[in-house]
C-alpha cells in the first residue's frame, strides 16, 4: 500500500550490501543487545523523538525478527526464573482484553511452555485472586482500532507488554509520548516493510532487556544484519523526508482517503456498523486528527449471525470475530491491501443490500 | 575468515534492494513454505546438485532464520500432536551422542516445552525401554569433526534430525549425497555469511514440512526476504564461480593451511592431543581429502584437568568439554576466526610447554 511512496523516494531508501560485508554474528558497541546494529538503534531513537510517540531516554533497545519474536521474548523475560530464585511453580497467565489480536493465544500456547500459558480475557481477571499475569495492551487495538490501557483488577503484581505497532500518526492521533516498561514497535506497520521482519522493543529494566536478548540468541542467534541495515536506511529516509515528501503526510492522506471511501460505501446501510472514533489532538501534525485504523472492525447487524460467511458469499475475505474472542457478528478486514484489491472490496461492499 | 574471498568476487555477490521492493510477507509460488523466495530455493537445489552433498529430489525446502530456528521447528514438527490424534502425554526425549553441540540442551529446554525435553546422551538410550525420541545426528560433528550416524539402540520408533552444517567439501570429504528424512544446512558455515541468518531444511514428509512452516509462522511470521535474496545471490556466486576462482577450492586451501599450522604448533608436544582423521575420497574434488573441521577439539593430557582454565592462562579462549557433555580435559576452539586472531592463537599455543 505504501509501495507508491517508496517508489517516489527512489534511491534514498535503497540499500546495497557487498558480498564481503556484514558477515559476522556480532555487532559493535557495548549494548545489552549484542547483535543489534548501532545504525538501526540510532534511527529508532531519532524517529521516535521526531514523531513524539515514545520516550526513548533511559530505555534499552532490543531488536527482533519482527515484533512477534519480541512478543515471545518478552513472555520469556517475564516468566523465566532468575538464577537466584526458585523455579516458577505454575505457568504465568497471559491475558488481553476482548477483542484481542487473534494470534496471541496460539503464539502463547504453541510450544506448550511451562513458563506461561494463555489466560484469555483481561477484563475478568483479578490480579489478587487469579495470581500473577502478563497483560498485553495493544494500543491502538488490533482488531478494533481503539486506544487502550491496562484493565486488570488489582494489577500491582503483573507485567505489561504494550504492543504499539499502530501508534503512528497515519493511524491515530499522537497524544503523548508513550512511557511504559516494555513497548513493542515494528517496521511492518510503520513504513510497510513487512518482509524485512524487523521490530524493536523499548525496555526500561536492563534485566528484562538481557533476558529478551538471551531468548533471541537461543531462538535465532540474533537478527538478520541485512534487514537491520535496510530498516535503518528506511527509517532514516522517513526522518530525512522534507515536508512536501513526508512519509506520514503521504500515508495519512492514503488512510484518510480509504476511510472516506469506506464510510461512503456503507452509509445508510443498516446491515453494517463501523466503529465510531472521536478525533484527538495530534502533537505530530499539530492539529486534531481522526483515528483511521489499519483494520476495519465491522459488525453485521440484524439476523446475520456469521458475518464472515455472509461476506464470503459476496467475495469479501475477512477474519471472524470468534478468532478475536468475541461474537461472529464481527469481522476484521485489512485496510492496508493494494489499491486494486481495496477498490474491489469497496465496490463489493457497496453492492450489498438487504 | 572467507571475507577475503568475497572481496575478490566483488560485485558478483553484492545485492541492491530498492526501497519499494520485497515489502509483502508473502512469496510467489505454490510451495509448502509460503514465505520462501523461489530464487533461494532454486539456488539451494543447484548448489547441492553441484556439490553432491545432498539428495534434493523429492524434498520440500523450508527456509529458516538460521538453522537454529529450523532445529526448533523440527522439534516442534516431530512432537506436536496431529489434529486427529490425542495429545502427546509426555514430552518426547531429545538426545544426541557425546560430545554434542553445547547449545542443544539449552535450545531444547529454555521454553520448558511440554512437547519435548532434553534427554542427554544418545549412546545410552534404548528406544524400546526409554520410549519415543528425537535423535540429533550432527555430521561432521560439532565439536569434534567426526562423521556420525544414528547410535540409538532399537531406533524404529524415533525421529531423526541430521544437522549437516559442516557437510561441505572445505571441511570434510563428500563421500555421497546425504539422503535423510530431515537435514539442516546453513549459509553461516557454508559461505561464512553468519549475520544473514539463513538456513534451510530438506524434508521428505510434506506433513513435517508443513508443521515446520507453521512453527516459523508463529515464531517470526516468516524469514527476512532481504536475507533470502542476499543468500540466493551468494549461493549463485558460489555455483557460478569458474574453476580458478572456485569458492570451495579457496576455502579448502585456507582450512588446509590452518590445520597444517595447527599440527606444526603442537607437534611433539605431549601436553596436547588432536583428533586423528583418516582421509576419504571426495566426489566433489575427485580425489582423497582430509577432514579439516571448523573447530579444533583439543585434549589436554597429563595432570591438566581443566583444559579451558589452563589455556585461559595462556590467553587462549576455548569452550570447556563439560559444555559438550564430556570431561573438562577437552576444549573446543574455533578454526574460523580472522587471520590475525588465528595467527595469535597459533603463536600462543606453540609457546606452551611443560
Automatic annotation (TrEMBL), chains A, B:
Keywords: Aminotransferase, Pyridoxal phosphate, Transferase. InterPro entries: Alliinase_C, Alliinase_N_sf, Ethylene_sulfur-biosynth, PyrdxlP-dep_Trfase, PyrdxlP-dep_Trfase_major, PyrdxlP-dep_Trfase_small. It holds the Pfam family Alliinase_C. Its cofactor is pyridoxal 5'-phosphate. Its EC number is 2.6.1.99. Residues 1-352 form the Alliinase C-terminal domain. Coiled coil: none annotated. GO terms for molecular function: L-tryptophan:pyruvate aminotransferase activity. Belongs to the alliinase family. Homodimer. This is Tryptophan aminotransferase- protein 2. It comes from Stylosanthes scabra.
